[in-house]
Amino acid sequence: MEKITLPKISSIQGTVKLPGSKSISNRSLLLAALGEGQITLENVLSSNDVDRMFEALQTLNIPCSRNVEERTVELQGCAGPLPNGDFNLYLENAGTAVRSMSAAICASKGNYVIDGNARMRERPIKDLVDALQKLNIDISYEFNTDCPPLNIKANGIKGGVTSVNGSVSSQYITALLLASPLAEDTVTINIDGELTSKPYVDMTIGLMKKFGVDVTNDNYQTFTVPAPQKYINPCNFIVEGDAGSASYFLGAAAINGHVKVYGCGKDSIQGESGFAGVMGQMGAEVTYGDNFIEVKSNGTLNGIDIDMNTMTDTGMTLAVVAMFAKGTTTIRNIANWQVKETERITAVATELKRAGASVEEGPDYLVINPPEKILNCEIETYDDHRMAMAFAILSLGTEITILDPLCCKKTFPDYFTVREGLVK
Q1: Residue numbers belonging to the annotated binding site for phosphoenolpyruvate
Q2: Which positions does UniProt annotate for 3-phosphoshikimate binding (predicted)?
Q3: Which residues have a Cβ under 8 Å from the Cβ of 173 and sit 6 or more positions away?
Q4: d(C-alpha 80, C-alpha 87), whole Å
Q5: pLDDT in tens, 19-55
Q6: pLDDT single digits (tens) 101-154
Q7: Residue 323 belongs to some domain of the structure
Q8: Is residue 133 in a domain?
């Protein structure tokens, strides 16, 4: 296994132009494919997850081309459902792509297989499958495991009423929303329980509106999508910088440094952009601009008790920043960490303990008491990109070794190179 040893650093200083958001890149690729007209997507992320979505569109014979160096995609939309036929789509461990494609393909006609790698075959998708079956869609599991691979005998979406568990993953709701305008009649989606990660659903609805489709949101309990509606591609669409990726630099700056990230700002559609505000609550100096976020250390961070449900991915960054704070940090309402790239609550707790922390973990929370001195150790990343990038922050306290650092290719392939340009 490859590994990288990061020497102890004193601070992090400088500016970062953020790579495109993974969430927005994947959503915009699918929306563009479903839309009418030619479109140029700009600042599209180049990463494993987005690569798999783009390759799936190519497999479906959608006219599209990509300039990775310029971060652009040229695409001619289908002006409706994705192409009919018999297709096998391999999406590795790209959760957003698997879930959204599984729903969107139901509007087409043909036999489709949606599959991924070994980890994806362990990631439950039952709530989405159940919701699609309530719309009389013929979708089933190849191995009866409630996980991919999925077999879809698509014959269009007729419309109707369905329901989905909202407490596990907002990606299920996103998938249903993206597919619903392609139905023959209105689709109503009722949410069972409390909807998790609401900002991601807001992002989806906002992007759908930019592509010409309206959704009614009744207090996050019922979503109504009039259908049929047609997605209309704008001539150009610029993908926001990834706020989750920003958190690793902003979190490090809150500990000791001064960093300004460009690509998202005060009007960001990403819930994760609120992470800098959390650093402000802990004691850092924070500034939000039109297209930047800036964090500067004020010398001391204080532990915090906070609900991170609206920005769950950056909760991992917070957990590592807590190692440098004065007092206890409690991170709440993070049950959906367990259905991510790895079982993140357990993984984060295990590695924080390895670095010397006292950690209490529960089904939806972590309580972190930092050590007097962070221990020099090897950090296991569990093939989880966010583990690698978040735990690199520990190098502000000690030399640290990150195992399998290449897993960050999922969202930020050159993270360690960019980081190296900021360390002091």
Answers
A1: 22, 95, 123, 171, 344, 386, 410
A2: 22-23, 27, 169-171, 197, 313, 336, 340
A3: 164, 166, 189, 191, 195, 201, 204, 223
A4: 18
A5: 999 999 999 999 999 999 999 999 999 998 999 999 9
A6: 999 999 999 999 999 999 899 999 999 999 999 999 999 999 989 999 999 999
A7: yes
A8: yes
In whole angstroms, give the CA distance from residue 37 to residue 120: 33
- Last residue within a domain, chosen from 190, 224, 258: 224
The two tokens of residue 385 are 């990109």
Domain with 43, as residue range(s), is 22-224
Q: Please name the residue that has the structure tokens 């915090």.
A: 304
- H helix runs in 264-355, sequence order: 275-282, 312-321, 344-354
27: left (phi over 0), alpha (psi -120 to 50) or beta: alpha
Do 193 and 138 share a structural domain? yes
Q: Are residues 123 and 257 in the same domain?
A: no
User: Which sequence positions are flagged as catalytic?
Assistant: 313
| pLDDT tens, position by position, 273-323 | 999 999 999 999 999 999 999 999 999 999 999 999 999 889 999 999 999
pLDDT digits (tens, 9 = 90+) for 196-227: 899 999 999 999 999 999 999 999 999 999 99
Pairing of strands 3-6, 400-403: antiparallel
Domain final residue, candidates 163, 193, 224: 224
Asked if the structure places residue 233 within a domain, the reply is no
